[in-house]
Amino acid sequence: MDMAMAARLGPLGLPHAALLGSSAAASTRALPLAPSRAPRLPYPLPHFPTCRRPSSSSSAAAYAARPRPRRGSPRLLAVRAMASGNPYAAELAAAKKAVTLAARLCQAVQQDIVHSGIQSKADKSPVTVADYGSQILVSLVLKMEVSSGPFSLVAEEEGILSAIDDGKSKGGPTGRHWVLDPIDGTKGFVRGDQYAIALALLDEGKVVLGVLACPNLPLSSISNPNGSSSGGQVGALFSATIGCGAEVESLDGSPPQKISVCSIDNPVNASFFESYESAHSMHDLTGSIAEKLGVLAPPVRIDSQAKYGALARGDGAIYLRFPHKGYKEKIWDHAAGSIVVTEAGGIVTDAAGNDLDFSKGRFLDLDTGIIATNKQLMPSLLKAVQDAIKEKNQAASLL
Ligand SMILES: Nc1ncnc2c1ncn2[C@@H]1O[C@H](COP(=O)(O)OS(=O)(=O)O)[C@@H](OP(=O)(O)O)[C@H]1O
Ligand SMILES: [Mg+2]
């Protein structure tokens, strides 16, 4: 993000409110929800990964002429999984469908919340409807589309309704577990700002797939709002599968585009993302890290894992997250976002430079905070982080 753009972010500490098109009228569309007649679901056109498509023209012609089963059928998913060479292709397609559908529900509810001004009242029921509704939709779609083996879902919302009891799984180092945050960035959602539906798959303790639906994030870079090639389209779907790279497409189903983190190697040209809520990340510490590193641009504050998506496509160079003492990070707040960034060529670690370990159950066991950037900036970022933490601890010990 350049300095001119940073200066346009506005004086109220609400950079994304203006920049990211966060007014409900501009950024959300009232899309029709699923008809109640299950199991017919209004799926968007599926897109499939392109890890190893045939490259020669004759094999491409044979590929194009292959017998085509009914769109969306389990057999089609299996055939495409084999053709693409991506062992998680069926799961990826199902995950994209699931979060796209959940995003439609959330968009409709957010529009209602913002229009009715309900966010200022004590009544939390619309958020609850969207949260549980999102989880139920994702759970149902995954169960319908990915039938092999036992179904295990680690999700933010546990219990309450028997229909979402699937969210009670504890995760862990063995087997496959879906990891879901049905609305990540609830505060942003209620404010009418950024949020995400974040879904990942753990296989033997490793994140192998992640999808992030960001209904209010512009499809093109937020670092260059004037250079938009997507006609001001809002609503981005990020996805990544281990070893296959990361992609972004519109939530309306445009063809996926490969994405990669920025190649900035001088912190002077870097910008950094952090939590919108100061209760979720220590803005004084992140400010000190940025200063030590030599970052000149002010922080770009965005709710939810939309930050990981924006970082993965190079809208900014660095992501810093330092919760206040005692907070335990949950796996659903980072699983999808972290694989989108690493598959886009970035690095995600804790404050000590360790990889995030998603095999320990519902929580991440990590040192102090989470940082992400490209390979060029990571060594100096780690040093700045450690220096800033030391300085903060020394100052605290003097009190
Ligand atoms: N006290 C505290 N400290 C740190 N983190 C917390 C805390 N409380 C909640 N959370 C989790 O933060 C998730 C959203 O945080 P983000 O940083 O992504 O967004 S935000 O800018 O703060 O809104 C948020 O996600 P959702 O609960 O899904 O909205 C929480 O999982
Ligand atoms: Mg969350």
UniProtKB/TrEMBL annotation:
Cofactor: Mg(2+)
Keywords, ordered alphabetically: Hydrolase, Magnesium, Metal-binding
Catalytic activity: 3'-phosphoadenylyl sulfate + H2O = adenosine 5'-phosphosulfate + phosphate; adenosine 3',5'-bisphosphate + H2O = AMP + phosphate; adenosine 2',5'-bisphosphate + H2O = AMP + phosphate
Record field: compositional bias (Low complexity): 52-66
InterPro entries on file: DPNP, Inositol_monoP_metal-BS, Inositol_monoP_superfamily, Inositol_monophosphatase-like, Inositol_monophosphatase_CS
GO BP terms, alphabetized: inositol phosphate metabolic process; phosphatidylinositol phosphate biosynthetic process; sulfate assimilation
EC number: 3.1.3.7
Protein's UniProt keywords contain Amino-acid biosynthesis: no
Binding residues for Mg(2+): 156, 181, 183-184, 333
Region (Disordered): 49-69
EC category name: hydrolase
CDD domains documented for this protein: PAP_phosphatase (cd01517)
GO molecular function: 3'(2'),5'-bisphosphate nucleotidase activity; metal ion binding
Family: Belongs to the inositol monophosphatase superfamily.
Role summary: Converts adenosine 3'-phosphate 5'-phosphosulfate (PAPS) to adenosine 5'-phosphosulfate (APS) and 3'(2')-phosphoadenosine 5'-phosphate (PAP) to AMP.
Protein name in the entry: 3'(2'),5'-bisphosphate nucleotidase
Species assigned in the record: Panicum virgatum (Blackwell switchgrass)
Phylogenetic placement of the source organism: Eukaryota, Viridiplantae, Streptophyta, Embryophyta, Tracheophyta
